[in-house]
Structures are given as structure tokens and as C-alpha cells.
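Notes to self after the Tuesday call (sharing in case useful).
The group wants a holo model before anyone commits to mutagenesis around the pocket. I volunteered. Ligand is magnesium ion. Logging inputs and output together so the record is complete.
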Amino acid sequence: MPGVPPSARPRACWSVYPGRVPAASDSPTRPSSAISGFDRTFVDELAPLTVPWRGADVPDPALLVLNGDLAETLGLDLEALRSVDGVALLSGAASPADATPVATAYAGHQFGGYAPLLGDGRALLLGELVDLHGHRVDLQLKGSGPTPFSRGGDGFAVVGPMLREYLVSEAMHALGIPTTRSLSVVATGRGVHRSGIEPGAVLARVAASHLRVGTFEYAARKPELLRPLADYAIARHFAEFLGFPATEAEAGDRYIAFFEAVLDRQASLVAQWILVGFVHGVMNTDNTTISGETIDYGPCAFIDAFDPSAVFSSIDHGGRYAFGNQPAVLKWNLARFAETLLPLMGAEPDASIAAATAVLDTFDDRYNRYFVEGLRTKIGLVDTTDASDLIDDLLTMMTEHHADWTGTFRALADELRGAPSSLATLLPNDDSSPWLHRWHTALDRLGRDRRQTADTMDRINPLYIPRNHHLDAALRSATDGDMTSFERLLAAVTHPFEHRDEWAHYADPAPVSFTDTFQTFCGT
Ligand code: AMP
Ligand code: MG
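Result:
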């Protein structure tokens, strides 16, 4: 694993609003009953972390995309969501009739530098819903206008990046990776200043919660808030620790266990990112969740060729958040999280530091275990412990030949079925043959049927990921008002394992001319 990542000066991703920032609270918003039954446990239990607020008015709302499956899981009425009232609610122009939206406070380390107050500068938490499986989730709007946390930013978002978050988060969900989900994107009809004027948009996002490491960094400076926040997070995400330990005298152990549980979920999450070639792009502590979900798809991307140093974000000049640096950066973020919990871990600071350090020291092993287990599964070698050499040599070979990460694992399955031609386009025969021989021997030793193994591999190795060149083209067209390419790509990446002829081109790596120059912008 690479060492401690370099830090760079924090930079804002957004442009400063050129005129007076409109005060959203000045203008009355109408109520909407398109979604009702919101809960507000976060506001009730942690009011000092919230400011009641409302969205800016929306000149000309148009629903660009609505997630029917997710709406159904949330028990929401699709027709109501599509109605004028529903679209007004999803754009922030109307407030839920039975809930008070809030902007929430948090802090964060951005590119290594501490910002004591960030908060929802362009988001509103509408409230909480309990889905059909009994899970409590937040419904949040992103891009709904300025708030008290906007810090000179305009509070808005634009069509391209909101559709990017919609599509990539839904693709991640389809890949089985914990993530916030996207319910809708509404175009607002407002021109928003970015590098030029861009069409404004609001994303409706669903999350297990919006608690972040940054929320704890904020609360750490307000001692009366820290324990209620930690207890709320435990109740919401790790209810198994509620009664642990039995005596209040040993309550510190609960918070150590809490830290360990968050660390474990996050180690697993980042291993899953690496296994699908995902680069988050802005792993600031305010973008590291307590729930273990991926959050905030800004300048994110999927790698084509395996390359630990791959950076796509236009603002990541130091490579802090490069593909292969993600585990090390996460560990750094988790160290910041542990620091916030120290006062809860016990009365004796040295003992708390020792306990937190002991947990943090388990990170590398946990991450490596998740990664190696995942990679073994990708090559059909579950239930075996001695595949490390095979894995290392495969990664070396793929790096050397710039083999397409996603394509290689599907090609390996084809090779097992006796169709080696696609693999031959990715790895030269002379190099791959000895490796393939060792791989086959390992499978034979385990008594694995080759065809069955290939089919199992195809159920976990995606064919379609949101490849940068396709996503970029789809977002450009969508920004110009044509949603056709976006919808097609969305259909493919939300069925990532299912081969269809009409989706074949989505499996192709980007042309070299594209990969050499591609950058994503958190231009938001
Ligand atoms: P993000 O990069 O989306 O995680 O955002 C980092 C911080 O910048 C958060 O506090 C956001 O609310 C804030 N932010 C991002 N874009 C804007 C914007 N256009 N206006 C105001 N605040 C913003
Ligand atoms: Mg963020």
C-alpha cells in the first residue's frame, strides 16, 4: 500500500456567485404533499447541527430523470412525483407539507487542510423516510440554492454533474457497492455561472444517512454535541452496540467498537472501489461516511487500464486521491475520525490514544483481506487461501500491458470457456500462457468446473461500467437537451452483468486519444 498521501492546498470546486447571493429564506415556498410521512430524528436529536432552510425558487422546472425502482422501494407514488407538485418538491421550490427542510453543519479536511465549517452549502435535508425493508434513509436535495453554509458559493448545481452523480451512483448500486442512491434530477431553468453559463439542476439523493467524518470533526469542538452525535450514529447504523457494554463505567468500549465498525465498513468499501476500478476523486473527510456508503460523486471516474497512479480530477494536482492512493487516504481520514472520538473512549487520554491506534493499525490487514478476497473471487478462486502469487502476477502483467481492467476479467471467463480471442487482444499470448496454465491448475486442484466457474465470474465481473468517454458524451448531449444517450447508457450500467448486443460498444475501452486528455471536474 502506498504511504501517506501528499497534501495540496484546498481548493474550491465551484465558482463564486457573481451577484448578490439570493437569500432563500426570504421568499416563501409553497407546500407540497407529493411525498409525506417524513421523519426527523436527526433534527430532533441533533438540532444544533441543523438550520431550518428552504430551496431557492425554480424558474422553469423540468423532470429529467426519475428512478421508478427506488421510488417504489421508498413506497412513493410515482404519479405524485411526476406531477407539478412533485417536481416542485424534487427541485426545492416547494417544501414538504409535513416537514421542515434543514441545512446541516459539518467540518472537514479538504486535500489535507482543515476547514472548521463546511456544511450543506447547496443541499437541503428534506427529512427521513423508512423504506419497504424497514431501513431509515435521508432524502436530500443537492443544488437547491444558497444556505448559511454557502461560503460565497452560489448554492446551485448544473445538469452535467448532477446527471453524472445520478448515473454513477446507480451504476455503483447495480454493482453491489454501498452507495447513496439517486431518486431524480430536475432541470431548474436557471442559468448557472460555471466556466460559462450552464443549465441549473437539482439532484434528489437518498442515503442511509448524511453523517460524515466531517460531522464528527465539527462536533468535536462542541463537547456537548459529541456524545449525542456518536450515540445517534450508533443507533442508526450500528444498533448492535447499543447495549454494549452493560455498565456505563465501561462505555468507552462502545465508542472504540463504533470506531472499529466504521473502519471495517470503510476498508471494505474502498476495496470494492479498487476491485471495479473506481476513483472517487475527492476523498475529503466530509466525503467519508459513517454508514460506509460511497457519497458525493464529483470528479469521479473508472479506470480503463490498471494504473495505481491514475488521477482524473482537474483539481488533484498532487495526486493525493489517485486510484492506488485511496486506501492510504482513507486510513488518514479514519485517523481524523478516531481523533474526534478520543474523549468518548475513556477518561485517560493516553489509554484512549493507545486503543484507537490499535484499531487503526488493523486497517492495512483488513483492507488487504477484502481486496485479496475480492480479487480471488474475480478469478473464480473463492475458498482458497494460496492465490496471492497468481493475483500479484496478474496485476503485474495487466499493469505492464495497460490491459483494460474491466475487460480482462470478462475475457478470462471467456478463455475458460475455450474462447481465448478477446484475452489475446488484451494480453500477449507469450506472457499470458504461463499464467493461464497456473490458473487452470489451481482451478483443477480445487475440482472446479471451468464453464461453471466462468459463469460465476460473469455474475460478479461487470461488462458495463460508466466508461469516461461514453459518460462524457452522454452528459454533453444531456446538457444540450438530448437525454437519449444518457438513458441508453443508464440502462446498460444498471444491468452491468447482462450481455446485450445493443450494448456491446459500452464494453469497449476509450480510444487512447481520449484517455490521454480526460479529466473530470467537480464543477458542480
Ligand atoms: P463537495 O465537493 O460537493 O463535497 O462540497 C464540499 C463543500 O463545498 C460542501 O460544504 C458543499 O456544500 C460546498 N459546495 C460545493 N459546491 C457549492 C456551491 N456551488 N455553492 C455553495 N457551496 C458549495
Ligand atoms: Mg461533499
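Two things stood out.
Residues 252-276 form the longest helix (25 residues).
Residues 13-14, 118-122, 150, 153-156, 282, 286-287, 296, 298, 522, 524 surround adenosine monophosphate (ligand 1) (CB under 6 Å).
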